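Lab notebook, bench 4. Continuing the backlog of folding jobs that were queued last week. Each job is logged with the same field layout so the records can be merged later without manual cleanup. Today's entry covers Glutamine synthetase, a 384-residue chain. Filled in by technician R.K.

JOB TYPE: sequence-to-structure
TARGET: Glutamine synthetase
LENGTH: 384
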Amino acid sequence: MCPPPPCRVKNMATSASSKLNKAVKQQYMDLPQGGKVQALYIWIDGSGEGLRCKTRTLDSEPKAVEDLPEWNFDGSSTYQSEGSNSDMFLIPVAMFRDPFRKDPNKLVLCEVLKYNRTPAETNLRHTCKQIMSMVQNNHPWFGMEQEYTLLGIDGHPFGWPSNGFPGPQGPYYCAVGADKAYGRDIVESHYRACLYAGVQICGTNAEVMPAQWEFQIGPCEGINMGDHLWVARFILHRVCEDFGVVVSFDPKPISGNWNGAGCHTNFSTKDMREEGGLKVIEDAIEMLAKRHSYHIRAYDPKGGLDNARRLTGHHETSNIDEFSAGVANRGASIRIPRMVGQEKKGYFEDRRPSANCDPYIVTEALVRTCLLKEEGEEPNDYSK
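JOB STATUS: finished
OUTPUT FIELD FOLLOWS
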């Protein structure tokens, strides 16, 4: 009897652009720029999750955000306006070094304003900045742990068998080895690109589900948290584009007995970080307990529907319908790190935000409840 044919694993689908010759590209990237600067303007589109970008030439290197001109784009092509009145304004708010084109070129994060110069619906930064300015004396610090999943362009998790599943979870978290860590080249490239750009990235690790990773941004004060996380996400999308794979921030990319993806948010104030801070932390948690439904609505772009797939009470999550807190408890809504419990000061971790959350509204919600002591189902309007 003839032996069975060897098992053939279908190649992971990759994008056509990843097959272009990068060495050929490099000979052009090495050309001098003639004293000009390329500024890549980045903004959040009408989905509240997608990022868009386009480049303009500047005559000299900008030294501050104030040196950057306003710009515009066609909002009818980004789910942000009608075609009959489509111009939207791009307002530069944060500037970073460009790790792809390198110095003196820039990445420029922008807010989006409508034709009448009011904030676009998905411009959540505008209100967040106002709220942060009200509590600046409290020096709110944030650190966000961004989980994500690497996929082929066919939507299949990177490195997974084409007609099945890898072995069950257990050996993949913080793992090393070709059979356990899928896509480390992407992770390393993203990390270095963030450091070059000036993004406040503070760590990275492989996550519990294979092809799932995490990077951490922070500590950042106030509005800087959202700015740095959004730019880190953009850089990750761009790095993945070069490698021909896709990054997903879906909170539950694979159904069944697999971990979801969150964006655990660490929060502290000046009082929490000082002696006796644990009492301040406990008071904040008490306020959060009374406002659970408000936070759940703020913690994913679909008002809690995305998180409902993830926050099941299993796979290191709390139940979406119940608020809980505990020391070193990864199944709670709020986790107090063990060291904080011992030192009686520090910070707490809100484990509810989804991987695709908007960091502006997450950080704003924490400030509203814990510092402005808001109550009820809706945020207060301070413009009146």
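OBSERVATION: The radius of gyration is 22 Å.
SIGNED: R.K.
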